[in-house]
């Protein structure tokens, strides 16, 4: 019985203490979206922490596409979003 108690005490002493997880402020990590229109397209500008991360272009005719900042002030065109934003539906009623 005493050996079991000593073994349990040793295991507990060697186990790392639980640490609190630091969660970033959701208001800072979620993108701010600015929507603008011109005659032929709608633009969704996604800004995170004050930095432009991507632009979604939705033309009146054709498929939507994304413009992602590349080196310098150039943008490259991609077919899918590069932002990782959770889009899960947990409950719906």
Describe the structure.
The termini are far apart. It is elongated and about 80 Å long. It contains 2 helices and 5 strands. The chain is of the alpha+beta class and 93 residues long. The protein has a 5-stranded antiparallel β-sheet with strand order 1-2-3-4-5, with no helix packed on it. The protein has helices at residues 2-14, 26-29, and strands at residues 32-37, 41-48, 51-59, 65-69, 75-78. The mean pLDDT is 78.
Notable features of this structure?
93 residues, alpha+beta, five-stranded antiparallel β-sheet, 2 helices, 18% helix
The portion of residues forming beta strands comes to 25-35%
Specify Rg, calculated over alpha carbons: 24 Å
Low-confidence stretches: none
Helix and strand content put the structural class at alpha+beta
Placed side by side, the strands forming the largest sheet appear as 1-2-3-4-5
Order of helices and strands: HHEEEEE
Tell me the overall shape: elongated
Helix content: 10-25%
Head-to-tail CA distance between termini: 55 Å
Number of strands: 5
Number of helices: 2
Average of the residue pLDDT scores:
78
Described by strand count, sense and barrel closure, the largest sheet is: 5 strands, antiparallel
């Amino acid at each position: 019985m005493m050996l079991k108690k000593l073994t349990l005490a040793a295991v507990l002493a060697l186990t790392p203490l639980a640490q609190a997880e630091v969660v970033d402020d959701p208001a800072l990590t979620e993108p701010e979206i600015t929507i603008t229109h011109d005659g032929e397209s709608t633009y969704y500008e996604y800004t995170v922490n004050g930095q432009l991360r991507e632009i979604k272009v939705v033309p009146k005719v054709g498929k939507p596409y994304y413009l992602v900042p590349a080196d310098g002030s150039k943008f490259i065109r991609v077919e899918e979003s590069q932002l990782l934003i959770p889009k899960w539906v947990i409950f719906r009623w």
